[in-house]
Amino acid sequence: MSRLLLCWHLHQPFYFLPDGTQSVPGVLAFRCLQNYRSMALIAREFSSVRMTFNITPSLLAQIQALGSGALRDALVEMLADDDPDPRQVKRLSAAIPERYIRRHPAAATLFQRLRDGTADPAHLRDLVVWLHLASFSPAIPDPEVEELAAKGRNFSPVERESLRRHVIAAIAELPSLYASLQRTGQVEISTSPFCHPMLPLLCSTDIVRQTRTTLRAPRPAFSWPQDAREQIRRGLDVCEEILKTRPAGMWPSEGALSEEVLDMMAEEKVAWTATDEVLLFASEPAATRDSLYSRWVFREQISVFFRDHELSDLIGFSYQRMDEESAGRDLAARIESTAGRHPDGCVVIILDGENPWDWYPSFGSRFLRIFYGEVEGRGIRTMTFSEASSGGVESRPLSRLVPGSWMGLHFDNWIGSEQANRAWQALAGARADWETHCCALNDDERQEGFRHLLIAEGSDWFWWYSLTTDPETKRRFDRLFRANLQFVYRLLKQPVPAVLETPLGDTLPQCGAVPMLAAPVIDGKETGFFEWRGALTVDPADFWMTIRPVSLPFSRIRLCRDRRALYLRIDLRAPLDGRLVFDVGAAEHLVADPASPQTSAFRWKSAELFEAEVPWTLIPVSSGCFSLRIIYRPPQQAEVVLPPEGALSFRIDTREDWWV
459: which of 123, 175, 581, 635 lies 20 to 30 Å off by Cα? Predict the structure, then answer.
């Protein structure tokens, strides 16, 4: 019988600035409580289901630091604040997706007060408590959390301090929890390179010329293969230091591999690695779906497993719109069917262990329990990757490997855009300057400075530079990248280059300017070919980085304006059956409710599509820009917020066509 190899990838980048300030507060604590804790505890309920957790060193190191008190999370520490600043609460609450907060009526009411500006200090203190209660997974029994949730409000200072300690303890216990699962043999812990860099790009950014891309490589090139090797080595070291066992396997950051990287991994005694099936089919022309389920061995040095793209993506992108019980059974049935056709092989599923669950009705817990139960009940044999690498699975020689990542035969999501290339150029300059001047430092200074260089080599900064997202997220990640390089220059006692003193690119999302056009007819349908021609178009899917809700309710958004109003068109995938809420930064949100259209403060119509006319008197405009969040609240379903974090920002085009 074929084996199932299941790997959950757990990752967070380094969120702390060199001075210990947390640039992206709340996210790490939320994911620890909501996902990493529940993933381990639910797995433990099914002791016969073997699996692998790939935990990145950057995540492990921060968990250890938060648990020990070496670093502090601003949101967690706010539990001790008797008079929270509403602006700070609003900023920190962005770390928690609204659907987690709104599932609790008491929390939803307090959250709305914060939005409306009507929250007093008592409301704010209670809301901070609820932000933490909402972060704990309801799938895991927790008497302290349940007792506070039942109380609902008026939490005392003693209760808030007790919750703060409980949160820190729950985070601190995670390394020992995963280590204990590994000791039982049920779980294998693998890891990734130290700061989650794109290893092929560290070896040379010119590798993009070998990929299927139309984007330009930066000049000068970044080419430090010794750094790639150091990232591999340090990743293994950190995991061994914290979990007390040196990993045998490594999931390369973003599944990014090349032949040079495979050689390095083998030389560092990595027994196995993995990536997406697309690299196999590009590398081995004779490879078929049947051979996908083999263990491939590169130059007799290292086992390479290729994930089943379809099965992995079903969890990440499709099952969220199904009943979780049906989804769990469907996945097990698909695995059983595939395994039956490949009795000597292995079915490989690898994906994020946190991002998919935000869109599941039970946030994934029901799905996981049904799926694991079905795996046990159907007698599907599960193995860790090390067990499969040691034998018992059909093997084939891998003679070559085309470079690429889990995203495809390219690295376009991390290099090639104007902003990303500017970051690569800044990194190349800093790395060269380090090599020139670091000899003047003592050993401790060299260790500290080089660590911050390695952090700046992480993939996350280049990901955010490459993609459209909300301005606050771009600002925070840009700040992290530049701060690490600024620290290096100050340690070297060298001038910080001017390019690092200001954001490397526009920190606003790439939404563009809203043009002046003739006013469209607000009738909910396509009135004429030229009606919206020339309008600014936004694709909602662009604002989800990896895991997005499959059933986005709208496919395209268009905006135009005249002197009197903003005109908004939303192309619907299905008739509008819930409320559309528009947050334009005003004191009150603008609401389009099909159940009571007469209550709206602006004119709109929904039929084949949604069209609205919003007077400028309702929209705050500052320095020629306005912001917009769109919240869709269908009945008895999870709400969808565009963008998932922060707000879109648009410019008003001051160039007016002569015919308007």
Answer: 175
Cα–chain center distance at 114: 26
What CA–CA distances, in Å, run from 221 to 33, 260, 268, 458, 525? 41, 17, 26, 16, 51
CA distance 367 to 357: 9
Query: What is the rounded CA–CA span in Å between residue 379 and residue 437?
Result: 60
Look at the block and give the residue holding tokens 């939490």: 155
pLDDT in tens, 334-380: 999 998 898 899 999 999 999 899 989 999 999 999 999 999 999 99
Which of 631, 610, 509 lies closest to 567 in space, CA to CA? 610
What is the residue-wise DSSP string for 86-107?
HHHHHHHHTTS-HHHHHTSHHH
Residue 567: beta bridge partners? 560, 613
In the chain, where the domains are located: 16-47+56-175, 418-500, 513-652
* pTM tops 0.70, yes or no: yes
Sign of the alpha-carbon dihedral angle for 268, 272, 277, 282: positive
- Report the pLDDT value the prediction gives residue 181, as an integer from 0 to 100: 99
Give CA–CA dist 466/43, Å, rounded.
Answer: 35
Domain 418-500: assigned CATH number: 1.20.1430
> What does the pLDDT look like over 392-425, one tens digit per residue?
799 999 999 999 999 999 999 999 999 999 999 9
Binned at pLDDT 50, 70 and 90, residue 470 comes out as low
Tracing tokens 């499709």 back to the chain, one arrives at 318
Share of the chain above pLDDT 70, in %: 94
Please state, in angstroms and rounded to a whole number, the distance separating the CA atoms of residues 498 and 625: 27
> Which string of DSSP letters, residue by residue, matches 572-629?
ESS---SEEEEE-SSSS-EEE-TT-GGG-SSEEEESSSEEEEEEGGGS--BTTEEEEE
Question: Which one-letter amino acid corresponds to residue 222?
Answer: F
Alpha carbon of 35 to those of 29, 52, 368, 375: distances in Å? 10, 15, 12, 21
| Token representation of residue 110 | 């307090």
Residue matched to tokens 């070896």: 203
CA distances from 266 to 261, 405, 526 (A): 9, 19, 59
Would you call 19 helix, strand, or coil by DSSP? coil
Helix (H/G/I), strand (E/B), else coil: 176: helix
Contacts of 600 (CB under 8 A, 6+ apart): 590, 591, 592, 593
Three-class secondary structure of residue 568 per DSSP = strand
Runs of H (alpha helix) within 268-409 = 277-283, 289-292, 309-313, 324-341, 365-377, 385-389
pLDDT at residue 544 is higher than 90 = no
Which amino acid would we find at residue 192? S
Is CATH 1.20.1250.20 what the domain over 513-652 is classified as, yes or no? no
Establish whether the linkage from the previous residue to 509 is cis, with ω within 30° of 0: no
Question: Could you give the CA distance from residue 307 to residue 309 in angstroms, rounded to a whole number?
Answer: 6
Give the model's pLDDT for residue 545: 45
* Residue whose C-alpha is closest to residue 40's, from 134, 180, 162, 165: 180
Phi, psi angle pair for 625, to nearest 5°: -130, 155
- Distance (Å, rounded) from C-alpha 353 to C-alpha 288? 28
The answer on pLDDT for 273 being more than 50 is: yes
Instruction: Show Cβ contacts of residue 33 under 8 Å, excluding neighbours closer than 6 positions.
Output: 132, 135, 136, 137, 167, 170, 171
Output 5 or 545, whichever has higher pLDDT: 5
pLDDT band with cut points at 50, 70 and 90 for residue 310? very high
Taking the C-alpha atoms of residue 310 and residue 418, their distance in angstroms, rounded to an integer, is 32
